[in-house]
Amino acid sequence: MKTTENISNILEVLPSSPGVYRYFDSKGVIIYVGKAKNLKNRVRSYFNSKNLDNRKTRVLVSKIVDIKYIVTPTEYDALLLENTLIKKHQPRYNILLKDDKTYPYICIKKERFPRIFSTRYVIKDKSDYFGPYSSPRIMKIILSLIKEIYQIRSCSFNLSKENVEAKKFKVCLDFHLKKCLGPCEGFQSEENYAQSITQIKQILKGETKSVIDYLKKEMIEFSENLEFEKAQSNLQKMELLKNYQSKSTVVNPKISDVDIFTIDSDVNAGYVNFIKVINGTVVQSSTIEIKKKLEETNEEMLQLAILELRNKFNSTSKTIFTSIPVDYEMDESVKMIVPQKGDKKKLIDFSLHNVRQFKFDKLKTLSIVDPERHSKRIVDQIQKDLRLKEKPIHIECFDNSNFQGTNAVAACVVFKNAKPSKKDYRNFNIKTVVGPDDFASMEEVVYRRYKRLRDENQPLPQLVIVDGGKGQLSSGVKALKDLGLFGKIAIVGIAKRLEEIYFPGDSLPLYIDKKSESLKTIQHLRNEAHRFGITHHRNKRSKNAFASELEEIKGIGEVTIKSLLTHFKYVKNIKVATNEQLLEVVNQKQAKAIRDFYN
Questions:
Q1: S-S: 300 plus which of 201, 217, 296, 440, CB 3.0-4.6 Å?
Q2: How confident is the model over 509-567, as pLDDT tens digits?
């Protein structure tokens, strides 16, 4: 089964992180929700030819037209979020792909003294159904918790008013074990039983805070009335609920009904992530891209996104967390907060992680389907971040290498349209500088490089980068001034320690966002220059080491050594060469000296 171009692009950029994935059909309806320890491996496995042998999987895959996902900190968070989304959206194929069984629900029966039990079938009898639960184990834990906290009947008797008054039933063992208060014999009122049912419904909806508040208030009243056993019972119920709550929420349960908005951007677009949290559980998430038209700021784009996403999801939350300050004037009752620490800040970080992953995937997809547009966007971003007059289509970077002051060399690497142009890379042997002097070496190679380009009327770069801080930058600037090119070519220095960008005449460095593609491209240039220079330096040291060995042979001078290495390539070939082979390069006396030396 062939995948569409859209699906293929999504599969290419999936992260290897834990998270939840959602499959959409042609109508935009969620047809499947799943969790994964590794999103890339799990989602790709659906499109594996081996898995497509399964009829149910083949039917599901044939209907997928879009894939969206939410990255989570851990696999356990992914499990919790998956359950929330399944309960909310009830996707069709989450049922069909689970061993031909439907997911279980918890039913609160519509009857006098309602029973609470699990079922796999939803009947339209006005009963309340909670679920579906993707994990029967989790559903059993919830039912066990309810039975531990509340005294709910387990029998299936018809406890109508007439039957109870007629004394048709007798209390069972549960009554004597204090697991039931005996409504079958009229020992418990309908109102008292209904109070427990109301609280159980709140727990099943995730509204545990209101139940805990009620139990706490009731506990205080019991204590004041000296009913300490009842107060102790309420305390135990509260502890059980808090323990359950801590295991079943993704975030702090005290954070209820909140909208979270975060933004990241580049030169062409802004990316906004929206997360809705109710009682400590993430119930909705969406990320959108906003194309820039007139250099809009992040605040302007976030304002627009908040309006659009709140309308789209019909959100009426009175609290909004944002990653940056936003002047939101739509409703004075809405409180805007930029969290700085604690669980609220963790929510912002969680949302930022998702929006940055979305941006990364978008850009990676763009680099695959439209590499030219991708390169142009990076060039535009560098121009904006470094405040350059011209687009840096042609960039060159210099790096020096030496070992204990010997074999000094330098490298120049060239990027065109934000990509390495390896045929234009150049190595330099330092000629005019004695000893380890990085500043003088940088001045020499910059001067030699652009003197030659100028004299040969070859195109000059729009940007020159030197590896180093203010000292190396000053040397590069001096070379350009001597050539009359300063001002015609932009030049900056990058210092390794904190990745500071230095500009000529400015003592304060520029710090680019560590995750910015501008900085990543500049780092790539710097690393390429270092790699290329080190390789040349090692080769030179190696040749010099060989040459120094030949220098020990009496009667062999520098010119002869050069001729021998040119002819034989390696010293090991000279060692094993016959007299006749040596005579092709040197005279009889020198040949004898070489053979005597190595023998």
A1: 296
A2: 888 877 778 888 888 898 888 888 787 656 665 555 555 567 777 778 778 877 887 88
The Cα–Cα gap between 97 and 107 comes to 23
Residue matched to tokens 């009359």: 484
Nearest to 273 by CA among 87, 70, 20: 70
Nearest to 384 by CA among 509, 262, 524, 265: 265
| pTM for the full predicted model | 0.43
Q: Cα(334)–Cα(354) distance, rounded to whole angstroms?
A: 24
Q: Between the CA of residue 200 and those of 243, 447, 487, 494, what are the distances in Å?
A: 16, 80, 74, 62
Cα first-last separation, the chain: 70
Q: Please name which of 130, 140, 134, 127 lies closest in space to residue 103, comparing C-alpha atoms.
A: 134
- Give the C-alpha separation, 270 to 342, whole Å: 27
User: DSSP letter string over 25-52?
Assistant: -TTS-EEEEEEESSHHHHHHHHTSTTGG
DSSP characters over 392-451: -SEEEEEEEEEETTEEEEEEEEEEETTEE-GGG-EEEE--S--SS-HHHHHHHHHHHHHH
Would you call 228 exposed, middle or buried from its count of C-beta atoms within 10 A (0-12, 13-18, 19+)?
Answer: exposed
**Rounded CA gap, 422 and 251, in Å?**
49
Amino acid at 223: S
Residue 525's contacts (CB-CB under 8 Å, 6 or more residues apart) are: 395, 397, 413, 415, 465
